[in-house]
Amino acid sequence: MKIAVVGATGLVGTKMIQILEERNFPISEFIPVASENSIGKEISFNGKKYKVVGMQTAIDMKPAIALFSAGGGTSLEWAPKFAAAGITVIDNSSAWRMDATKRLVVPEINASVLTSSDKIIANPNCSTIQMVMVLNPLHHKYKIKRVVVSTYQSVTGTGVKAVNQLMNERKGIAGEKAYPHTIDLNVIPHIDSFSDNGYTKEEMKMVNETKIIMGDDSIKVTATTVRIPVMGGHSESVNVEFEKDFDLNEVRNILENTPGVIVTDDVKNLKYPMPIDAHEKDEVFVGRLRRDESQPNTLNMFIVSDNLRKGAATNAVQIAEYLIKNKLV
Fold first, then answer.
1. How many CA atoms lie within 13 A of 111 on its CB side?
2. Domain 2-124+312-325: CATH superfamily, name plus number
3. How far apart are CA 201 and CA 93, in angstroms?
4. Strand locations in the chain, DSSP E?
5. How far is C-alpha 266 from the geometric centre of its chain's CA atoms?
6. What does the pLDDT read at residue 88?
7. What number is the average pLDDT over the span 138-160?
8. Neighbour-count burial of 241, counting CB atoms closer than 10 A to its CB (0-12 exposed, 13-18 middle, 19+ buried)
9. Catalytic: 181?
């Protein structure tokens, strides 16, 4: 099984390589791919060194699967070329998520929609993935009417430049900026560009992707996405209104029995989800479970996950694992 990682030198690409190693992914040949500036650089994988190749070289090498994390523009240009060569692309950018002809997949929820003819598969937005992992089992039981979510997102979601900005500001060093404002000791209620409706694209991703993944256009979602000066994971305050009433103990039981979800909800002992505890873990953590006393059938909770892992690289690798297991590549 030949596997290519496109964007192999970036934050998510590096994490994809790490996760392929950790999960003992069945690889006969590993192909690291990056921009022209990185061609010829060496990348380690399973104790061996591999030289980075360019896009066309990678296509000519005919991998079965290409994990893409090289940005939307690169994906729009190159993913169709890989697909035309019979290579299945799992893309981590936003390029294909709203394309009605492409599948948007969180394996635990809707991997069954995949077929062998799906040659470009979209990995959802990191914030959406962790939220729907918790919402989906509750939706099946109580039917969700409306979701109000505010996010607290790690600088790692922006990339290396943002991490460097935070660290430079912390040390009082001038340097290149990823954000229009200081991020250290600050929060920025602005992720991605603003749309005409006053929401950012990141916020609208959460609105639209939730409906697609969960297969229900009736779910109403409103989001405010915020960048905060942390690394390790994204956090979300989520308020969910259901059609049916719920029992809080039953909610806990449902979530405790949901694969990929860990309930951390013991406020007497000050245990609740935090990004520092989610760092380098694949699970989605949920806690602060409590009834909204201002209106009926409504639940409050706090959700945390490592945005580079389940929010990006791990989810993509899990899609690849599903394709192989079900002989779809």
1. 18
2. NAD(P)-binding Rossmann-like Domain (3.40.50.720)
3. 13
4. 2-6, 29-33, 42-45, 48-51, 65-68, 88-91, 103-104, 120-122, 144-152, 220-224, 234-242, 261-263, 284-291, 298-305
5. 27
6. 98
7. 97
8. middle
9. no
Q: Where are the domains of the chain?
A: 2-124+312-325, 127-307
Q: Average pLDDT for residues 217-229, to the nearest whole number?
A: 98
Cβ count near 221 (within 10 Å): 21
Biggest alpha carbon–alpha carbon distance for the chain? 60
Question: For residue 273, what are the CA distances in angstroms to 61, 124, 159, 231, 261?
Answer: 43, 22, 23, 14, 11
Alpha carbon distance 223, 138 (integer Å): 19
The whole-chain average pLDDT of the chain stands at: 97
pLDDT at 211: 98
Residue 279, C-beta contacts closer than 8 angstroms, at least 6 positions apart: 231, 232, 233, 306
- Under 8 Å between Cβ of 285 and 304: yes
What is the residue whose two structure tokens read 């706090």? 302
Residue identified by tokens 């609740």 is 272
For domain 127-307, give the CATH superfamily.
Dihydrodipicolinate Reductase; domain 2 (3.30.360.10)
Q: Report the distance separating Cα 79 and Cα 84, nearest Å.
A: 9
Indicate if 279 belongs to the active site.
no
Q: Residue range 209-237: average pLDDT? A: 97
Rounded CA separation 67/55 (Å): 12
Q: For residue 195, what pLDDT is reported?
A: 97
Q: Taking the CA atoms of the chain, what radius of gyration do you get in angstroms? A: 20
Catalytic residue among 126, 140, 190, 279: 126
Specify the DSSP element, H or E, that contains 83: helix 72-84
**62: left (phi > 0), else alpha (psi -120 to 50), else beta?**
left
Mean pLDDT of 173-186: 97
CB 243 within 8 A of CB 285: no
- % of the chain with per-residue pLDDT over 70: 100
Q: Can you give the pTM of this predicted structure? A: 0.96
Name the residue among 29, 78, 38, 257 with its Cα closest to residue 14: 38
* Cβ atoms of residues 130 and 153 within 8 Å: no
